[in-house]
Specification:
The structure is a single chain. By secondary structure, this protein is α/β, with parallel strands linked by helices. The chain is 35% helix and 22% strand. The chain is built from 5 helices and 12 strands. It has a 4-stranded mixed sheet with strand order 3-8-5-11, with no helix packed on it. Strands 4-12-6-7 form a 4-stranded mixed sheet.
Amino acid sequence: MKWADEIVIVDSGSKDRTLEIAKSFGAKTSHHAFDGHGEQKNVALDLCTSDWTLLLDADEVLTPALQADIRDLLSSDPKYDAYWIPRLNLYFGRWIRHGGFYPDHKLRLFRRGAARLSEGVGPHSTPQFKGPCGTLKHDMLHYAYPTLAIYLEHMSRYSTEIAQLLYRDGRTSQSLPSLSGTQSSTQSRLSSITTFSG
């Protein structure tokens, strides 16, 4: 990402070398207490000063081909104000290209101020943009769940966070949709992964 005009990192108190490493790459860093996933990313968006923003999570990597796509796009006169990026996900040591997991399009490249993330919705807040969007060709790699242990830790943390949001909003299990359809969908997806991805 040496070609980026600026790198902005918002940290909520990491105990590792995150800030030291970020600063060594010339990143603009800021501390902000964690109020939520979308909220934290919106703080970062507010700190960006360049014309275009590329939003990345810590477990995402741009392939060289995607970097070239972005540089080529931004060196021209982009047709759209926002672009979808296909994301390839790593599950348990394998890149998943089937079963509805690919391409996992994410709206991550947009003109400054054109998109904001939804807030108060838990760990999978997404940029909100109104208008037509373009789609880039090459993949962003998502090191989602390289091991079963990491998957289980994430699901435990995410389910706790979502339960707290539902409780905050006064929703109980009686107000949630039936999980039987979700279970069937999940079983189908896992079956597809097994069938097509080995």
